Amino acid sequence: MPGVKTLFLYTESATHAGTGTGLGAVDLPIQREQTTGYPIIQGSGVKGALRSQSTASDDDKNVVFGPENRPNAPPGFAGAAAFGDARVLLFPVRALNGVFVWTTCESVLARFVRDCQPAGAPPLPPRLSGDQALVSSTDITSNDKIVLEEYLYQAKLLSDSQEVTENWALWLAQYALPVDNGGVYDRHYFKALQSRLVILPDDDFRDFTLYSTQVVTRVALNDVSKTVAEGPFTMELLPADTLLYVPITAQNPRDVSSGFPKGSSAQDVLDWFETQCFDANIIPPRIQIGGDETVGYGRVALHWGA
């Protein structure tokens, strides 16, 4: 039976996992799901970033990710791990109180539970409509209302709904945020998420993920004359402080290495990600994903879930 593990990605800088070209107002849009419009990072991009930046041995990486395709290479085999797309779980939105909040919705949480079957996850919140929003704390409200971008919501603070929201905020802070052993994530973000989680109606959350991303205008310069060689062009970015999740499944290894002797199981492959994929002295592990690394885009902190 295949095993399952969840990888959480927390964007520490704006991130551009692009489609190459765009047909709309933005020249270089980010990758999105066809049906929902939610931002994603395709599984092939996640797999490639993990493989290229892993500090493990090449033999171990061949077992987990599969051998690299090279000219005149002997016939290969499939890697033991399969990567789903990175799907949005929390999306940051500008707020009148608290600077910004993390938003989600009932359908996104339901899909996360379906995809990853997280142990101990709280019950799903009720489905909302109209101008209602569930908040995890009154710190981000004023007169029982909350303002996100230019939109006003009635903050719903009924005891049963409030408890569901608080429980999700606490669960996500404990099990989805990066861990840094007393660093800034433990000291600041752990508490911040608990007080700044907002559950929105499904349609409103979709609209924020569609229209509240970061769009920048750029040019490419000629190396010699330093005049504009290309552009201006617009680029869409997934904002910093977005939380995504990747379901990873594993099969028994199809080859052996020092890290995977004969008889290794799918669970050994999943355990390898947390213990061997990156240098254990770097907490939390980080990768660069997407384009434009040299201008600071795509810095992502990792957290391995159950």
User: Would you tell me the overall average pLDDT?
Assistant: 90
Order of helices and strands: EEHHEEEHEEEHHEHEEEHEE
Note the beta-strand portion. Answer: 25-35%
Please estimate the helix content: 25-40%
Uncertain segments are none
Radius of gyration: 21 Å
Largest sheet: 12 strands, mixed
Query: Number of helical segments?
Result: 7
- Termini gap: 17 Å
Task: Please tell me what the overall shape is.
Answer: globular
Q: How would the blueprint of this fold be written?
A:
Layout: E1 3-11, E2 40-41, H1 43-53, H2 58-65, E3 81-83, E4 86-94, E5 100-105, H3 106-116, E6 132-135, E7 145-148, E8 151-156, H4 159-175, H5 184-195, E9 197-200, H6 202-211, E10 214-221, E11 228-237, E12 243-250, H7 266-275, E13 286-288, E14 299-304
Parallel strand pairs: 5-9, 6-8
Antiparallel strand pairs: 1-12, 1-14, 2-4, 3-12, 4-5, 4-12, 6-9, 7-8, 10-11, 13-14
Helix pairs in contact: 4-5
Could you please describe the fold and organization of this structure?
With 306 residues, the protein is an alpha+beta fold. Helices cover 26% and strands 27% of the residues. Strands 1, 2, 3, 4, 5, 6, 7, 8, 9, 12, 13 and 14 form a twelve-stranded mixed β-sheet that branches. A two-stranded antiparallel sheet has the order 10-11. α4 packs antiparallel against α5. The longest helix has 17 residues. The model has no long low-confidence stretch (mean pLDDT 90).
Structural key phrases:
7 helices, two-stranded antiparallel ribbon, single chain, 306 residues, 27% strand, 12-stranded mixed beta sheet, 14 strands, alpha+beta
